[in-house]
Amino acid sequence: MLRVRSISQGHELALALRSAYLEMHRCVDTQFRQTGVTADQFVVLSALAEAGCLTQRRLADQITCDQNTLRAMLLLLEKKGLVLRQPHPTDGRARLVSLTSEGEVLQKALSEQLNPLRQSLGESLRPEETELLLELLRRVAATISAPAST
After folding, report:
1. Are 109 and 130 in contact (CB under 8 A)?
2. pTM of the prediction?
3. What is the pLDDT of residue 2?
4. Contact (CB, 8 A) for 95 and 87
5. 3-state DSSP call for residue 36?
6. Which domains does the chain have, with CATH numbers?
7. CA–CA separation, 32 vs 38, rounded Å?
8. Phi/psi at 90 (nearest 5 deg)?
9. How far is Cα of residue 140 from the mean position of the Cα atoms in its chain?
10. Does residue 142 have a pLDDT over 50?
11. HEC-encoded secondary structure of 63-97
12. Is DNA damage given among the entry's keywords (predicted)?
């Protein structure tokens, strides 16, 4: 009986995580609609704003994105003049990615546009609940990424 309950709770947890993620994604996409930047593209812009310059592989790891999806996003962002991709000076297989000045300005404006959402999220839980939720989400992510035992 315990295993069935565990599977049922796991299913419910997966649906709740998916629902929360999709709701936030829809909200951000709606806020950014007029800019032509998606929520996923904003994540890329923000990671680059924080890091300055990264290899595509490091960027993919940092934002938890597969290489092919990231490459497609970078091509679109490059076409819009928001990112610059250059060959790595010492590794012929790697590409360095950074924001253009236009990308920096847009990322900053979009980030400020999200402040009310961030504030609302921050106020929805007490500080100790936020810390607990973050710890639990990290544990869920680690469980999902860990190899399944057979």
Report:
1. no
2. 0.85
3. 56
4. yes
5. coil
6. 2-126 (1.10.10.10)
7. 7
8. -120, -15
9. 16
10. yes
11. HCCCHHHHHHHHHHHHHCCCEEEEECCCCCCCEEE
12. no
